[in-house]
Amino acid sequence: MNTKNFRRTLVTSALPYANGPIHLGHLAGAYLHADIFVRFKRLKQEVVLFICGSDEHGVPITLTAEEEGVSPKVIIDRYHEMNLKAFEDFGISFDNYSRTSLTIHHKTAQEFFLKYYQNGILKQKKEFQFFDEKAKMFLPDRYIVGTCPHCGSNDARGDQCESCGSYLNSTELINPKSKVTGETPVLKETVHWYFPLGDYQTRLQKYIEEKNKQEGWKENVLNYCKNWFDEGLQDRAITRDLDWGVKVPLKDNENKVLYVWFEAVLGYISSTKEWAEKKNQPDEWKKYWLDSETKYIAFIGKDNIVFHCIVFPAMLMAWNDLSEEKYILPDNVPANEFLNYEGLKFSKSRGWGIYLKDFLEHFPPDPLRYYLASILPENRDADFYWRDFQAKNNNELADILGNFVNRTLTFTEKHFNSMVPEAASLNEIDRQLLVQIPQFKVRIEQLFEKIKIKDAVNEIMNLARLGNKYFNDSQPWKTINENRESCATTINLSIQLIRTLAVMFSPIIPFTAEKIFSMLNISDESLKLWDGSAEPKIPVGHKIGKPTILFTKIDDKLIEPFLNSQEKEEISKMKINRKTITVDDFKRVEIKIAKVIGCEKVKNSKKLLKLQVDLGDENRQVIAGLAEFYEPGELVGKKVLLVSNLNELKLMDEISQGMVLTVEDENKKLKIITVDESLPIGCLLK
Description:
Blueprint: E1 8-13, H1 24-43, E2 47-54, H2 59-68, H3 72-90, E3 96-99, H4 103-118, E4 123-132, E5 137-138, E6 144-147, E7 156-157, E8 174-178, E9 186-195, H5 201-215, H6 219-231, E10 236-237, E11 239-241, E12 256-258, H7 260-264, H8 267-278, H9 286-289, E13 294-299, H10 305-322, E14 339-341, H11 356-359, H12 365-374, E15 382-384, H13 386-415, H14 428-449, H15 453-474, H16 476-482, H17 484-505, H18 510-519, H19 556-563, H20 565-579, H21 583-587, E16 591-601, E17 609-614, E18 619-624, H22 632-635, E19 639-643, E20 649-651, E21 654-656, E22 659-660, E23 662-664, E24 670-672
Helix pairs in contact: 2-3, 4-8, 5-10, 6-10, 12-13, 13-15, 13-17, 14-15, 14-17, 15-17, 16-17, 17-18
């Protein structure tokens, strides 16, 4: 682990798209654990800056605007304000939440583009893209629909088929149509600039290796990057033919904008600049981005790994090669896996899931913060279940933490006139408690530092369990009559532990922590800090406030409207119907062993390969979307499985007489299925 003493920490969370409300999956992916980590750092009085903002460009936003018949600005204004309020209500404590539509962001992104352009870093390439002659515009991938060449679905988008999950190039679609006019688009030549990502692969691999040694990166992140490196990094287009976005700052490029993947990550820098300007210290941002004594941690979901571990660092490396101002690179990128909802993926189109703003209309934020923190998908996907949420609130927050606080403070109010009594004498149980509390503090601090939030949450709750056990074992309801001095010690130490719990829980359930401090009548901010939190700091005779119930138990009737059992059943049926067929259905599919005897790339396609295969009694031509995963020579000689009784398809003016079977790994990479060499070609799979 890194032993360097940094002067400050920069924390960023992935910029959410401003084309819809924040849902619970977003929180678990990139925001809650970042906020908890930042709040912990502030408790330790470290210098930390928490940066985020709305990602307000890109096709999803323009599509939403098209659907509603309004301008993109109407969409981004609506969702920026909606999401900012939801974050604030949930207690996400950004130091600055910016917008990529701001002038300061456009200037920052254009500055990076021009730096690369003027120094010959970018490559200019001609390519063919679909053009809508009626609308007089080039069509982004998501503006094109057609038939999927893999599964035959009639509503595949130009970038992906949702029916079978295949990633597509729009030119692969059968019978493509423009979503703007419904017309059939034509291929037209255009020119774009590309960033040479492959030129930085060796340096990127070394960078990740070094940072992993220093910080201990998560395995899911390392494996994802390795897969990209194994495939080999390629040039990536950084411009698009669109009206909405950051304009390309070159003459005669009025209809081109910077690709959102390129400019959005620069939103972290522009947001920090905006923060500095708000402070009337416009150069303050440089302390966080241009100073090696700053540690940078980027919190994201796993779908953003490539942009934050490969693309963004490469962009910063390119800048640093050309400038005296050297940007720091992320020291760690603790990407979380996905959070599902009641066993299924969140789906806006199917209405499956719940938005944060809607949740907060019915429940306070802290129970949700606690529940999500306790199940964070740090290493594998997790699920939000209403029954589980209810149980965590009732059995842990109410029955463990809330019970310990309430029973201690009400006892103090009743028997000690709401005054903290003196711990005049210690028995063995008391001494054990005083030894264990600092030990808990050390373990919890280490977990927070390692960004193992879920484990830290569980350990703090274990400390609350210890408080209840101590209270029960000490039996103050008996000693109040039999040994008042011993009872006073029990209550004193219990009150001290309540303060400890308030401090340690404050990054996780901040609103509740403030309620506890209020009940303890603690206004001294030094008593709310991490340092000294395990020590008995509340003086004898201190007057506590009025005890109140911290957590209301959630009754079944409160969550029943959200269970959507009928809707879930219908969605489950859809899921089953997509994945199950009858035996007769399977018998109609003819799968044979074929040998690849020739392979080449399809002209004007980045994704398609043209395979010549031998079936024993005949040769066939098959078009397969494998060009991103294999070089043509790699496939020649391999025995593969071929669906041989499909109707012929025409793809990019080439005939395809079958389908080669592949599997998709966890990183959406296609792997061809090969068979044992001893099996003869033409054999039928049964």
